[in-house]
Amino acid sequence: MDLVVTNNGTDNIALFAGYGNGTFASPTMYSTGSSSSISIAIGDLNRDNR
After folding, report:
1. Tell me: the pLDDT tens digits for 1-41?
2. pTM of this prediction?
3. Membrane-spanning regions, if any (predicted)?
4. Residue ranges of the domains in the chain?
5. How far is the C-alpha of 25 from the C-alpha of 2, rounded, in Å?
6. How far apart are CA 49 and CA 43, in angstroms?
7. DSSP letters of the chain?
8. C-alpha–C-alpha distance, residues 35 and 32, integer Å
9. In angstroms, rounded to a whole number, what is the distance separating the alpha carbons of residues 36 and 2?
């Protein structure tokens, strides 16, 4: 399981990749440009049913 967090004040999204043992990697940050994010829509992007 992975965790995605929106950071409204800093205009970015953080992805915490899960190791599968209940712990997460350090976040990978993605810029939302000059727009502030307030929500995230997610899905099984690689279709692995996990």
Report:
1. 888 999 878 889 999 998 989 899 999 999 988 777 788 88
2. 0.72
3. none
4. 1-43
5. 9
6. 10
7. --EEEEEGGGTEEEEE-B-SSS-BPPPEEEE-TTSPP-------TT-S--
8. 6
9. 22
